[in-house]
Amino acid sequence: MDSLFTQNVSDEAEDIPQTDEPVWILGRKYNALKELDVIRRDIRSKLWFTYRKGFIPIGGCSSTFTSDKGWGCMLRCGQMVLAQALITLHL
Description:
The structure is a single chain. By secondary structure, this protein is mostly helical. The chain contains three helices and two strands. It folds into two domains: 16-45, no CATH class; 52-90, no CATH class. The chain is 36% helix and 9% strand. Strands 1-2 form a two-stranded antiparallel ribbon. The two termini are 21 Å apart. It comes from Lasius niger (Black garden ant).
C-alpha cells in the first residue's frame, strides 16, 4: 500500500526533523537523532485512510458525489482515531 510517507522516504532524513527535542507519536517518546528507523517503522505501522474517488454516487442517481474529497475528512479522521484506539486496546 502506497502512502504519502513511503513515497517521500529517501536516503536523506527530510521526512523526520533532525532535532534534539523528543519526538512524540501517540504517546511514545523517540529521539529523532538516534531512532530514525524506529520512528519510520512506527509511522508505517499506523493505519492511513485516504481519499476515495470514482465510487457509485452517494444518494442515488441524482447525486454528484463520487468522491469524498472536501467532506470526508472528518469521517476519515474519526475512523482512523477509532481504528487506532481499537488496535491499541485489543491487539
